[in-house]
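Entry 14. Structure prediction run on the chain below.
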Amino acid sequence: MRIASGGVSDVGRVRTNNEDCYRIVTPLNLYVLSDGMGGEAHGEIASAMAVETLVKHCLETEKNPAAPFFGQTQPNWNLKTKRLVSAVHLANKNIFKSAEDHPEQHGMGATLTAAWIDGMKLSIAHVGDSRAYLLRAGNLLQLTQDHSLVAEQVRRGILTAAEAEESEMQSVLLRALGAQPEIEVDAEEQQLIARDVLLLCSDGLTRMVTEPEIAGTLQAETDPTMAAEKLIKLANERGGADNITVVVVRLETDSKGWFSWLRRGARRDESGNGSAGGK
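Output returned:
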């Protein structure tokens, strides 16, 4: 079993700056995506701070397992999930404090969706309306729950899904990093199997491209970076109303041995940051 991954971020067709930020940390099989908000450059600051805080915390705790946890964790979560949730709490504290210390940053915030693969176990921590999906045997499952006003109205039966898609309130978040000194973090754990495909994306994709189209693209294009590029192209063809960021992770069986793996090309060194922005 090997993991192939790729990510792409695009400003879209309407925005002038990109407030999205993502990071792939190949040695840890750690994947992080954030969508900033706050106007001017402040959304970019918030999303970059969210991603960098989470990555730094996870890297440090790999070296020092005794490092303290931040926020509340559940005893039934595995260690990777606990660390992810801890990192999200720390990111929230850092963004909130930065906005307090710098009045011009008041109101900035960010979503944060992070996935950590350990063997065949997937841990996810999430705040906001960026999403994580799992494609398995042609079925696309949304692993995260949107923390937005319209999503909550759909859950309560106030709006239909179709009405939510047309609502002018889609950008209103009920939960985002930096809005309050403490944050509630959602966590999810999944057992993975061969040929699973994990997708992280900002709402610039999901507002423009339907889930059947996302599933079809992920099935048709097996190269993770090219799949991300094709999804972004689709979103831009529909108007590209927001920044668009896509991270694709494929679990592949290497049945033909090392030569097949070499011929197809080693995965890109994605440990760097791909960023640009948002809401």
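The CA atoms of residues 48 and 124 lie 19 Å apart.
Filed with the rest of this week's runs.
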